[in-house]
Batch of 2 targets.
Target 1
Amino acid sequence: MSLSIVLLWVVSVSLLAHSQPNPRGYLLDCGAGKQSGSTVGELKYITDEGFTSVGNITTLKTPDLVPILSTLRYFPDTSARKYCYVIPVVKGGKYLVRTTYYYGGFDGGEEPPVFDQLVEGTKWGVVNTTEDYANGLSSYYEIFVRAMGKSLRFCLARNKHTKSSPFVSAIELEYMDNSLYNSTNFNKFALTTVARNYFGNQGDSISFPDDKFNRLWQPFNDTNPTVESHSNITSSRFWNVPPAKAFSHAITTSRGKTLQIQWPTMLLPSAKYYISLYFQDNRTPSPYSWRVFDVAVNGETFYRGLNVTTSGVTVYSTQWPLSGQTQIALTPANGMPVGPVINAGEIMQILPLAGSTLNRDVEVMEDLARTFNDPPSDWSGDPCLPTENSWTGVACSYGEHVRVVALNLTGMGMSGSLPSQVSNLTALNHL
Ligand SMILES: *[C@@H]1O[C@H](CO)[C@@H](O)[C@H](O)[C@H]1NC(C)=O
Ligand SMILES: *[C@@H]1O[C@H](CO)[C@@H](O)[C@H](O)[C@H]1NC(C)=O
Ligand SMILES: *[C@@H]1O[C@H](CO)[C@@H](O)[C@H](O)[C@H]1NC(C)=O
Ligand SMILES: *[C@@H]1O[C@H](CO)[C@@H](O)[C@H](O)[C@H]1NC(C)=O
Ligand SMILES: *[C@@H]1O[C@H](CO)[C@@H](O)[C@H](O)[C@H]1NC(C)=O
Ligand SMILES: *[C@@H]1O[C@H](CO)[C@@H](O)[C@H](O)[C@H]1NC(C)=O
Ligand SMILES: *[C@@H]1O[C@H](CO)[C@@H](O)[C@H](O)[C@H]1NC(C)=O
Ligand SMILES: *[C@@H]1O[C@H](CO)[C@@H](O)[C@H](O)[C@H]1NC(C)=O
């Protein structure tokens, strides 16, 4: 499921704002060509040239688009099994990968193509921006993933619904503190963002530098009463370091009543989810500024007897099964003089990783790819995974270790003797 954002039109940015250094990572403005890239707010994007060797670039004709949406890279080669970016990372680091898509009719069509996105050897999900595009919005997707090697491979691929060329407008890679979402085993799982909201507000989305990791927090408001906060928070004291701005308002209800919120608003596919909720008593700090309530999700106790003070608190669940609608209910303890409050929440789907090809085989295959003058365009990313997106001419075994077992180099413009690297593919039994 995609997240949409009104990131369409150029907004004027105060020239007086002191420019902050970018968060650690890469911000790629896809299709920017040889230009240096562009600036959005305080963030500087660089061109994606050099991070991929495939695809064509184009500039949209729509006037006044935000610079990162005005160019894109698309992948017309229908024979390639995937189109990959290889981005340098800190091995073992935890990263947020955010991909942004704005179709803009670049191929002369009416509807955006639907295609897959992959991260390392795992199918991350389907990119379907049809509805957002029809509503005049760009779309983005987020995944939190551990970098297993010295580079992170992000790819697009066709699927059976893909009618025209897959494309991408921007790719962002942000380094996360190790403490973020640390109850998740990132060696086996990734987290894909379903919703990240701050409640009781209708303003702009919160991002860098308010969120130092450049996560996006969208406003959420419903028909419940809202309150403004009268005390500051120190976000570093919270698990997952939510931005202080996310606590400026809260959703509440009157004394003695249960606060019910339909959040997130969309219907969720049946799966396990990481849920993190953020609370703060909004009153001026005093010995009496605290309130106790129970937190329930779809009628099941999520946290009993939560004591929320003016310094605030996070409660989270590592793996919570959800399906369809989600309802959060906050029920006050007996005798509380004020109703419950909630300030912000995050919900991410837990995505099992598909693993990766044995690293030694990957290194040999990448080495081999470099000896070709013109390697097949899908010879980048994981050679064997996902299974339907393995490299052209490469056959693999999918046992405990994923290995390259056969190569068919016919028609790849090879001449003369075989490169010596091939002898290092120790599971190879067919050439
Ligand atoms: C993409 O670029 C290649 C080479 O740069 C060119 O030969 C090809 O015609 C282009 N394809 C499209 C659909 O523009
Ligand atoms: C893409 O999304 C649109 C709008 O939600 C939907 O009608 C369409 O069936 C989807 N396409 C695919 C291939 O899933
Ligand atoms: C996770 O991070 C928190 C700080 O945000 C820390 O207190 C806790 O010990 C960490 N847990 C693990 C398992 O690393
Ligand atoms: C939230 O929505 C309610 C009703 O829909 C409205 O009365 C209130 O002003 C909104 N609050 C904010 C902070 O936008
Ligand atoms: C919050 O912090 C700001 C800046 O540090 C300070 O000016 C303000 O008085 C504080 N507000 C409260 C209610 O503590
Ligand atoms: C809630 O926390 C406050 C501040 O730590 C404390 O004074 C109060 O007694 C606590 N209330 C309950 C019911 O534990
Ligand atoms: C090897 O690839 C060529 C060209 O794609 C194909 O014609 C041939 O049938 C393949 N051979 C095997 C054994 O799969
Ligand atoms: C093959 O592997 C050996 C040992 O890991 C290494 O020293 C050698 O450089 C490799 N050769 C090639 C051609 O990759």
Note: The two ends are 41 Å apart (CA to CA).
Target 2
Amino acid sequence: MKLMGMCSMRGWKGVQCRKLFVFATILFAASIVYFYINFSMKTTTEVVNDNMLEEGYYAYERAAQESGGVRVIRFNKTSNDVIVFVHIQKTAGTTFEKFLVRYQQNLPCKCQAHKKRCNCGRNASNETWLFSRYSTGWVCGLHADFTELVVNSCVQRVLDKQAGHKKKRNYFYTTFLRNPTDRFISEFRHVQRGATWISSKHVCNGRPASVNDLPTCFDPRIGWEGVSLEEFISCPYNLAFNRQTRMLSNLSLVGCYEHLRRPSYEQDKIMMESAKENLRNMAFFGIKERMDDSQYFFEATFDMKFSRKMSVWGKSKSNDTVLTASQLAYIRNVNKLDWELYEYALQLFNERLSQLHRKKRRLR
Ligand SMILES: *[C@@H]1O[C@H](CO)[C@@H](O)[C@H](O)[C@H]1NC(C)=O
Ligand SMILES: *[C@@H]1O[C@H](CO)[C@@H](O)[C@H](O)[C@H]1NC(C)=O
Ligand SMILES: *[C@@H]1O[C@H](CO)[C@@H](O)[C@H](O)[C@H]1NC(C)=O
Ligand SMILES: *[C@@H]1O[C@H](CO)[C@@H](O)[C@H](O)[C@H]1NC(C)=O
Ligand SMILES: *[C@@H]1O[C@H](CO)[C@@H](O)[C@H](O)[C@H]1NC(C)=O
């Protein structure tokens, strides 16, 4: 109670002053408690009233509970439902995105020859039902992650802007995952050939990451072409490490990119749990090693059909990089989080797949 030293007057006035100070302190604390309770109650009611529409993202878990464990996703082609694809580098995402705009037959996009992007507008409103590279383009930044798309509400903002007014939509998030070691090597080879993704914004907590938040591994004016594997894996800020976990987690929970400077077990754990939760809430996720099953999973979930097989299309064209056992062990180790996420994802994938098969058998 050092502050009471303000009442340094002696005698009667000093006592009054101290009493007044105590009274004011209590009043202040009480009003904080009151506002806190009142406010948090208000926000809860709001969430309960609108969550189905505003946070369509969370609709599936609830739907799953309501139908006795079987997930029901009703993608309504004519209403405000939008599929959003979270494209993690080197996971067959490009193949999937091409299929969505080119070979999907139930809600076909209008594509023109020699144009990368297609119009996936709905017939009636011309508003897009697909948020992806070949429909909307990288409007939330190159390879925007969960934090940029969802936590920072970029999808909502961009689609509202295109529609010209605010609107409630149901978002159906989708992504693809891949064996983390293979993905890492594939990213390394891509960077070695000259890719950098330097223009990714990495928005978190409402602003793009600065060079201070996120140092680069190379001189941006020169790039990283021709980098050796040794150099690639020894840069601590290399975003290739555990990319899948990071891109699927809510980075606001871990102070954005702080974990790259000061790795911590606690933050890793929070990021891991967040990525798993977000994955569970996705309407669909594919696995690069399971293309046929992924195609079935998507088609059965959204009641859409592709006219070709993704497994035939998605074959990797480049030769494998030959690595020593110790290099492989090292790569596995620096992608520990991604390995945990991938193993979790495989299990979830199998569960969802057998649910879909069971549902189909019941319908027959
Ligand atoms: C889809 O949405 C439209 C427009 O909101 C509605 O009229 C229709 O009944 C919905 N269809 C289903 C199957 O829910
Ligand atoms: C949209 O219109 C096109 C041509 O007018 C038609 O072929 C297609 O079936 C329509 N799609 C839907 C979902 O109504
Ligand atoms: C629909 O939107 C696309 C691009 O967003 C535009 O090129 C096209 O002219 C629009 N069509 C109509 C009928 O408004
Ligand atoms: C992400 O984390 C922040 C910080 O805890 C939280 O306020 C926000 O609601 C979370 N957003 C999502 C979509 O999980
Ligand atoms: C891949 O390996 C085959 C056989 O060793 C070789 O003929 C081909 O040129 C290689 N392709 C590339 C892109 O390196």
Note: The longest strand covers residues 170-177.
